[in-house]
C-alpha cells in the first residue's frame, strides 16, 4: 500500500522528477498525528522551506510494535521520494558528517564494537573482541550492567554509580555470588566452590525475626573476642 492509499492525497500538484536519494536536515519531529514522521529541509531549497511529513523506514514496524529511533532536530538524514514525488518523502536513515561524529571510531581497526547511545548518554555496547566478548548497559548517571562472556571468566556484574555491586561469577574454580556495598566493608558471599555463605559487616551485624533457629549438622561454634551475652525469658542449655 502506498502512502497515498494509507494517508490520502492532499491534491497538491504531483512532481515526479526527483530521482535518487538526498541528504536533508531534520527540522521537526513532533508529528501531530503521532505516526513517527519528521519534517526536513533540503539543500537545494530555502532553509525556511520545510518538507511535507516524511515517513521513516525502520528495521521493523507494525501495529504498536517495531524499532523506535526518532531522529533529533538538526540530525542529517538520507531522503528518497515515492515515485520521485517531493510531496511523499521517506527518511531512509541517518548520516554522520564532519560536524556530527560517530560514537565509536574503530581505533583498534578490528571492528569489534557495536553500540547504541542516546542523546543523554545511555549506552548499550556489544563487544565482540575475541575471547573477551561482553554486553554492557550503562546509564547516563553511571549505573552499569555487564554480561561478560570472556573465555574462562564469564560473569554478570551490576553496579551503581555510588559503588554498590552485585557480582555473579561463573569462572571455573571461583563460582560465587557476591553482594558488596560501596564501602567494601559490608558484603554477602555465596561461595559455590566451598558451599559456604559468608556475611561480613564493618560495624554491627543484626539478624531479627519473629522466630529464629540456628542449627548445624556437625559442630556449631559461637565465639566472642570480648564478652559473650545470652539473654532470654528462659535460657536452656542442652
Automatic annotation (TrEMBL):
Signal peptide: none annotated. InterPro entries: Gp5/Vgr_OB, Vgr_OB-fold_dom_sf. Pfam families: Phage_base_V (PF04717). Residues 23-96 form the Gp5/Type VI secretion system Vgr protein OB-fold domain. This is Phage-related baseplate assembly protein. It comes from Halogeometricum pallidum JCM 14848. The lineage of its organism: Archaea, Methanobacteriati, Methanobacteriota, Stenosarchaea group, Halobacteria.
Amino acid at each position: 500500500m502506498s502512502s497515498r492509499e494509507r494517508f490520502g492525497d492532499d491534491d497538491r500538484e504531483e512532481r515526479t522528477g526527483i530521482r535518487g536519494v538526498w541528504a536533508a536536515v531534520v527540522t521537526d519531529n513532533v508529528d501531530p498525528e503521532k505516526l513517527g514522521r519528521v519534517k526536513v529541509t533540503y539543500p537545494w531549497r530555502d532553509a525556511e522551506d520545510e518538507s511535507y511529513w516524511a515517513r521513516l523506514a525502520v528495521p521493523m514496524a507494525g501495529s504498536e510494535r517495531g524499532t523506535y529511533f526518532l531522529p533529533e532536530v538538526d540530525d542529517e538524514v538520507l531522503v528518497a521520494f515515492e515515485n520521485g514525488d517531493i510531496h511523499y518523502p521517506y527518511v531512509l536513515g541517518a548520516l554522520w558528517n564532519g560536524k556530527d561524529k560517530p560514537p565509536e571510531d574503530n581505533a583498534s581497526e578490528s571492528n569489534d564494537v557495536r553500540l547504541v547511545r542516546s542523546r543523554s548518554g545511555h549506552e548499550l555496547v556489544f563487544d565482540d573482541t575475541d575471547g573477551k566478548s561482553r554486553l554492557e548497559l550503562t546509564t547516563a548517571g553511571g549505573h552499569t550492567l555487564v554480561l561478560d562472556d570472556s573465555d574462562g571468566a564469564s560473569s554478570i556484574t551490576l553496579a551503581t554509580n555510588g559503588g554498590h555491586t552485585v557480582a555473579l561469577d561463573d569462572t571455573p574454580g571461583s563460582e560465587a555470588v557476591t553482594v558488596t556495598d560501596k564501602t567494601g566493608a559490608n558484603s554477602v558471599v555465596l561461595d559455590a566452590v566451598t558451599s559456604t555463605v559468608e556475611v561480613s559487616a564493618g560495624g554491627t551485624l543484626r539478624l531479627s525475626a519473629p522466630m529464629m533457629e540456628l542449627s548445624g549438622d556437625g559442630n556449631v561454634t559461637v565465639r566472642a573476642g570480648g564478652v559473650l551475652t545470652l539473654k532470654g525469658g528462659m535460657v536452656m542449655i542442652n
